[in-house]
Amino acid sequence: MTIHVTPIPRLTNLVAPAFTLGTANTAGAAITAVSSNSTILTYDTSDPAAVAAAAVVGSAATAARRDHVHVGGPGASEAEMVAASSTTVFASPGRTQYHPGVGKAWAKVDQTGTQSIRASYGFSGIADPGVGKSTLTFTTAMDDQHGYTVSCTVPNGVGCVNSPETTTIRIDSRTYAGELQDVDEIYTMVMGTQA
Predict the structure, then answer these.
(1) Residue 82 burial (C-beta neighbours within 10 Å; 0-12, 13-18, 19+)
(2) What pLDDT digit, counting tens, does each position of 159-172 carry?
(3) pLDDT by residue (tens digit) across 127-138?
(4) What is the pTM of this model?
(5) Looking at the DSSP assignment, which residues form a beta bridge with residue 159?
(6) What stretches of 14-156 adopt beta strand conformation (E)?
(7) Which of 4, 78, 88, 159 could form a disulfide with 150 if both were Cys (CB 3.0 to 4.6 A apart)?
(8) Residue 40 CA to chain centroid, in angstroms?
């Protein structure tokens, strides 16, 4: 008679998972067991890095959560926009106008009848000092170093700047003979640095 004895298995010691996230599959050599209800380290708890100027592959051993949020890179200050030299900050919409290469104000003006600004940016009002003359007030004052362009739609006339100031600009519309005249469309644009 043969008796078969089945050995009683030893209790298995369970260990904490030590799986590694990587960029390729690699066979392990451990002969330990992991419980099916273990927690596997996958996500880190650190804040994601800010947006950088250049891409980096990275070396973190854990992954960012799917709903992680990156903070935007640093926005340029007014002084950095005026200096126009930084290559590590970005120009936000609220600071772009401070860059010296960006127009500070523009307007499309109707001088006929009651003068009006048809469309504009950077001007807060208009005054009528006489025929062919319009005085526009800047929303933000300019410094002493700024330039203007003026044109008008009259086929026999020219637009010009008269009495530029840091807070206002007077634009005139004249015939080729030099006589002041009201026109239905006169345009101006201002470049330079704001005070």
Answers:
(1) middle
(2) 888 878 999 999 99
(3) 999 999 999 999
(4) 0.62
(5) 173
(6) 105-110, 116-121, 123-130, 133-138, 142-152
(7) 159
(8) 40
